[in-house]
Amino acid sequence: MAATGLLPKRAAAQEGAVSKRKINKTKLNVYLDLLLTGIFVVEIEEHFTGLPLHEVLGLLFAVAFLLHIVLHWDWVVSVTRTFFKQLLHESRLNYVLNVALFVDMAFVTVSGILISRTLGLNVALAEDFRRTLQTLHMVGSELVLIIVALHVALHWKWIRANAGKYLFGWLPKQSR
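Above: the chain sequence. Below: its structure as tokens.
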């Protein structure tokens, strides 16, 4: 009987220990960004993977991209509310760049789904429209590459500091 009385206490103690652990959002962002970078580098050029894997990686990238936005949602809401008030110019530029990236990524994702030949959707499109959409999909993905490069440039200090901390923290510190 005494053993059964301990089970609820032990379970409650374990539950409390789990709830006390906080997720390190910065560390999660570093690893998610690394995943996004890896998928992006491989997926941007269909010739690296072949069409079926290119399409699957595109969907995986879209999901990871949405998760990235969810993790930064507080920032999105905060900057949206204060966009025309007192806000640093860099924050406005970052916001506009992020909106452009979101719109372009949404277009590339939707157009990729529409022109997909291996996901099994088989959307009936006129051949001329399909070719136009394929061209726009490629142009949009090249624009994503440019916007992502600008995004990385704007966040370089954060990337450098946190990559050093969470990815390369095991390396010995260099004395200056």
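The CA atoms of residues 93 and 141 lie 21 Å apart.
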